Amino acid sequence: MKYEIISNYSRDDKLRHLFNELSVNTFGLDFENWYQSGYWNEKYIPYSVLADEKIISNVSVNIIDCTVNGKQRHYIQLGTIMTDENYRNQGFSRILMEKIISDYSDRDGIFLYANDSVVDFYPKFGFRKADEFRFRSSVNTDLPAGVKMIPMNTAEDFNAFINAKRSLVSRSPVITDTDDLMMFYLTQFMQESVYKLNDRNCYVIAEKDDDLLTVYDILSDKPIDPSEICSLFGSEIKKAEFAFIPENNSSLEKYQYTEEDTTFFVLGDTLIDDLPEILSFPALVHA
């Protein structure tokens, strides 16, 4: 069978359609709206195998430039790892992994989140399993809600939020330059997850599930207590979990985080050395 490896082809409508076809069939995910909204940029780079006039395998590179407690780091995350069921077990994922690791050998590290069914695959390339840690707290308040949901339904909504975000800072010791990945979530699955504090220049990305609040990011022009943020979501909230690392976490409970059917893998000495400071990458960075 003849095949070729292609990459960085998002502006080619035909190839992008073939990529989306495989993604929908594999994960039920369609990237077209993300592309049309303008957030699929040069930081998301599919490496794909093209054969029989279709894309049969893929591993995508996500450029993750970030600051870890003031230190500049340049990582990549691998995601959208998939192979057409008719072409599996023929070594295509291995070919793509080897090329990517070679192409990005100058980076500070590589990480990925793997299904538990393939945990024996990634150590063949030098990856090692790593633990993740997050924070949580109880919430006890009688105050009424002090936040307003900001809908994310239209291009105007998206642009207004991005423009407002430019003057704000993520309140975390790990700051990632990944608005593109964040907008993958906010333009599709989390369109009702952006809130603004009523009396401050502060946005919170969060989801409510009964009495649990999951906080994905806090964006503000001044430092703010994450426990105070949670109390502003009203008296029905009793527990809070943080899907990013808040900068002011001394009053929060640190715990080892595990996600069902998911294993965190890392490659690279610099990234491994940084893990005690990173603790875990923000959920809105996951690809």
Record keyword descriptors for this entry:
eight-stranded mixed β-sheet; 35% strand; Aminopeptidase; 287 residues; alpha+beta
Explain the overall architecture.
With 287 residues, the protein is an alpha+beta fold. It has 2 domains: 4-132 and 258-285, Gcn5-related N-acetyltransferase (GNAT) (Aminopeptidase); 135-255, Aminopeptidase (3-Layer(aba) Sandwich). It has 7 helices and 16 strands. The strands form 2 sheets. Strands 1, 2, 3, 4, 5, 6, 10 and 16 form an 8-stranded mixed sheet that branches. Strands 7, 8, 9, 11, 12, 13, 14 and 15 form an 8-stranded mixed sheet that branches. The longest helix has 15 residues, at 13-27.
Number of strands: 16
N-end to C-end Cα span: 30 Å
Low-confidence stretches: none
- Helix-strand category: alpha+beta
- Name the helicity range: 10-25%
Oligomer: single chain
Largest sheet: 8 strands, mixed
**% residues in beta strands:** 25-35%
- Shape call: globular
Quickly count the domains: 2
Instruction: Report mean pLDDT, rounded to a whole number.
Output: 95
Order of helices and strands: EHHEEEHEEEEHEEHEEEHEEEH
Annotated CATH topology of the largest domain: Aminopeptidase
Number of helices: 7
Known CATH architecture of the largest domain? 3-Layer(aba) Sandwich
The gyration radius over C-alpha positions equals: 20 Å
CATH superfamily of the largest domain: Gcn5-related N-acetyltransferase (GNAT)
- CATH class of the largest domain equals Alpha Beta
